[in-house]
Amino acid sequence: MSLDAVLAKIDETLPEAMDRLFGLLRIPSISTDPAYRPDCAKAADWLAEELSDLGLDAAARPTPGHPMVVGHGGGGDRHFLFYGHYDVQPVDPLNLWHRDPFDPAIEDTPAGRVIRGRGASDDKGQLMTFIEACRAWKAVHGALPCRLTVFLEGEEESGSPSLIPFMTENSGELTAEIALICDTSMVSPGIPSVASQLRGMLKDEFTIHGPNIDLHSGHYGGPGLNPLREMARIVASFHDAETGRVAVEGFYDGVHEVPPELLRQWENSGFDEKTYLNSVGYTVPHGEKGYSALEQQWARPTLEFNGMWGGYQGVGSKTVIPSEAHCKITCRLVGDMDPDRLREKIRAHVEARLSIDATVTWDQDLEGSPAAVMNISRPEFEAARKALSDEWDREAVFVGMGGSIPIAGYFKEILGMDAMLIGFANDDDAIHSPNEKYDVQSFHKGIRSWARVLSALS
Amino acid sequence: MSLDAVLAKIDETLPEAMDRLFGLLRIPSISTDPAYRPDCAKAADWLAEELSDLGLDAAARPTPGHPMVVGHGGGGDRHFLFYGHYDVQPVDPLNLWHRDPFDPAIEDTPAGRVIRGRGASDDKGQLMTFIEACRAWKAVHGALPCRLTVFLEGEEESGSPSLIPFMTENSGELTAEIALICDTSMVSPGIPSVASQLRGMLKDEFTIHGPNIDLHSGHYGGPGLNPLREMARIVASFHDAETGRVAVEGFYDGVHEVPPELLRQWENSGFDEKTYLNSVGYTVPHGEKGYSALEQQWARPTLEFNGMWGGYQGVGSKTVIPSEAHCKITCRLVGDMDPDRLREKIRAHVEARLSIDATVTWDQDLEGSPAAVMNISRPEFEAARKALSDEWDREAVFVGMGGSIPIAGYFKEILGMDAMLIGFANDDDAIHSPNEKYDVQSFHKGIRSWARVLSALS
Lengths: 458, 458
Prior knowledge:
GO biological process, one term (chains A, B): proteolysis
GO molecular function (chains A, B): metal ion binding; peptidase activity; succinyl-diaminopimelate desuccinylase activity
Structural class of chain A: alpha+beta
CATH class of the largest domain in chain A: Alpha Beta
Keywords (chains A, B): Hydrolase, Metal-binding, Protease
Shape of chain A: globular
Protein name (chains A, B): Succinyl-diaminopimelate desuccinylase
Radius of gyration of chain A: 23 Å
Largest interface: A-B, 99 and 99 residues
CATH architecture of the largest domain in chain A: 3-Layer(aba) Sandwich
Number of strands of chain A: 18
Low-confidence stretches of chain A: none
Mean pLDDT of chain A: 95
Oligomer: homodimer
């Protein structure tokens, strides 16, 4: 079947494709905040409609959380599953956005034209590259290039509570030869990248309790235990200031060094440490001593503080000793680190360091996910790598990824299906941050890339 | 002039006095938050009206901040100034109040009847004890017992920015023999107390800046410097974990040990360490090792964290490395500690500990106030002590105070006038906290106490 006609179709219908993406970006589908539950449902319905347009038998399927969108279509011997997620991160701090996060627009920047808005890159823009590739193929050939199952989730940014039960209950219809996932970035702008490994994730949150009411710092300043000071002391104890290593006992159990040959491949992948650091205001890597920024990001575990708060945050001053202090934690896991065992170690680390009269409560009990290593020896990986190299006129590379996409591990665990992660985001997309963007080039060539990959695999 | 008739009048008109206090408590005069500026003006006008009722020549006088209420009246040889403040602390966290903070009510509690509401104790209830004493005196004798100047401030809870300029410009009319201040508590319930010393105050606030935008903890977790972790490390460095002492270089310059005889007096003042600690959920004092809770509160300096925040505080989790972290600090000063020099030492402590790629900005520049030691050798102190002992059937005591009332020092500095601090609050009044209260007994016997003190001084 002619690929060139499909690529030409993609070029000529790009404006309409962009309009469709904008329609999806306008829906504030923030999954972590219950206030946006109706918007998540709306995004799911919007996508089910979109897939039906392509002739897939598609529906938004209810779960205890946000709906799953599942569509089946196409024909032939080969059967692939595509996964993406339609939910997005919260938008705070809103005042740092230079436009409404849910009123997307094309903006001209020194680095080129970008699509601005929450979810433009993570993951609405990316998942639409695949759907638009299918749309163009259908338009040219009247049918999809192969048998396809499209599986879109609405809880990826909030721990995917419904994912495992849904996959288990529907394993039959969700099992294909391999899963294609578009939720990752390119190692460097213009360098097409296929993930060879992903970090896992562990989330937790604790509250330190001190006095039974907020206290006046005149009446109790001195004798009074201050939960903020307690939290700071405990948070500071999580890392060794000298080495930058996490100081939780047994934290590094299951962490392996990167094989020298893979490390060499990574170092030649075009990752530009200077740009990576300087673009966000760093001059040096701040992780574990003895590892490059690339290794710190792709191959080393972390214990990160995503939020801390307590006491008075308003204008001016308040002479209070607060009764509580709060801390949100996430860990990135590598190798064989076990999220459940690690959670216990972290909680034990905190509990062992509490002062008399201080107590701790754990406020989240979120699903952890282990790290994932891809089976890059499968022929689909090499076929995809070639197709990507053709589109981008640059040798595509296998790279590590600092992010966590638990789904890759779940596909293997629950469906016995390998996953191949191909994404077109860039590190400066500000995903999870104010002013998120997706390069118009990523969207356009991303669509073209999927058309080539589907052609190569079918 | 008959005192008994005045005391009888106070007893019989207590319900009306309570109603007047409730009128004042209903005005949300939160001085630190610009949103409540009109309410502060309203409270000032309300009090000017009240003083005019007593025949004082009174007015709410404008300042660049909130108004000062000044009233002059009465006659005779003796001239005293009374000081109080009509502004109150913010009410957050609002969800911990069991009623609207500005809808006051009498509540029956196991410990007796209380007036519940923000400002009931600090300082609206306390200042009204003096005004009601004057009202009863006027009702019985047709005139005030002596020449009086009443001076009420609306910025005490927010650093008193307008106070020094106002006192300087109006020093003539504000200078009396001695200043009477009702903004302190009793060392123990039912034990009338006169302050022999107060701690000073220093306020500051800083922001740690890291990356130039919020970052994704997958893309930058590891190599990325996290301002929350930076803040925790620096906050933890402010105290020696072993001794509980503040670790800022030169922090204790100007701090003196309490003279043994005064310490003995304090220890016999009825201060109940067990109740003081247990009532708020502590089992041991958490301040400097080697000092009793009483010394830690009255005679030792502190560096306290009143608010810390940064990153995501919402429902669920957000995998972000925030670009900023914030911390509000207050210090309680004793002896000859110099607030201005101390501010420099604290800022130097932070700046010396910043990592590469981290910067700090200082977000407040609030007036500091040195500690104050009272001139208890003046005859007015002994006269007042006797009058209080009569009212409470219990020897009144000279005690230290953990709080800071800068005004006492300013009266001395600017007007050359000593101050005498007499208050009827209790440590469990939850001032600055949710569910603030003032004992009905404190209000009632407080009014009677001022009638006795005025009688004794006039």
